[in-house]
Design brief:
With about 240 residues, the protein is mainly alpha-helical. About 65% of the residues lie in helices and about 5% in strands. It contains 9 helices and 2 strands. The protein has a two-stranded antiparallel ribbon. A hairpin with a 3-residue loop joins strand 1 and strand 2. Helix 1 packs antiparallel against helix 2, helix 2 runs antiparallel to helix 3 and helix 2 packs across helix 4. The two termini are about 35 Å apart.
């Protein structure tokens, strides 16, 4: 964790670096708390700069429903943490807090893409293996539109594509290492998972839209700093 904070500090400064690592800790703690409640042992949290963090289970969940709940625990607690930072931003008018809230909402929303080992892939995988195709479509559109150009995401797409192929190909042995009846969950459980997933997506999209009204761009902040010094009284500036 300290290495990650130090690495991010070199690029973003200490306050923002500490904030994004703190929000990442909250996200991963959400997974760990659900694992603990279910009695599933897990390894210590691991951080890798620019790759994120993770908590590994030492044994498989009982079924896909439990796996989906564990996966959902991260975005739920992470989103609540981001919302708390957003509230601090409103109370203090801190642009740092608004920027951190934006990061928190964005990273939890990203993790809900129904693809491979992302949280969304584990949640939606309990509903249908075909949701992986939806995730590949979303990921592909993000790459094609230029919204994401991070090589790490390309690896996520490749891994997610392979995972989806393994689940859908005829005669696959994908489930051979899983407990018997792993994906045989009730319709009520599927409705609960699907409803929670949609509610979380809607809440995050709404929170990001609201936060965006108050978050100022770096260009706007730079302009306001210069204007505060009285040096831009005759300058016209477009955002």
């Amino acid at each position: 964790m300290i290495l990650t904070v130090g690495t991010y500090t070199a690029f973003f400064g200490l306050p923002y670096a500490a904030g994004i690592v703190g929000l990442t800790v909250l996200h991963e703690s959400g997974h760990a708390l659900v694992m603990k409640r279910m009695g599933i042992p897990f390894d210590p949290m691991v951080f890798v700069p620019f790759l994120g963090a993770g908590v590994s289970m030492k044994k498989s969940p009982r079924d896909a429903y439990d796996e989906a709940l564990i996966a959902m625990g991260g975005p739920v607690l992470g989103s609540l943490g981001a919302a708390g930072v957003c509230v601090v931003g409103h109370l203090t008018q801190s642009q740092l807090a608004f920027a951190l809230a934006d990061f928190g909402f964005m990273i939890n929303l990203f993790n809900l893409i129904p693809l491979g080992s992302l949280d969304g892939g584990r949640i939606c995988g309990a509903l249908s293996p075909y949701t992986g195709l939806v995730g590949l479509g979303i990921g592909g559109s993000l790459i094609a539109s230029g919204h994401i150009s991070n090589p790490i995401f390309y690896l996520v797409m490749i891994a997610g594509g392979w995972d989806t192929f393994q689940k859908l190909r005829p005669g696959n042995d994908y489930m051979s290492n899983l407990p018997r009846g792993y994906y045989r969950i009730t319709e009520g459980q599927k409705i609960a998972i699907g409803g929670g997933y949609v509610a979380l997506l809607g809440g995050l999209f709404g929170a990001m839209a609201i936060n965006d009204h108050y978050k100022k761009s770096p260009e706007r902040l730079a302009y306001e700093r210069k204007a505060g010094k009285g040096g831009l009284s005759n300058m016209h500036y477009d955002y």
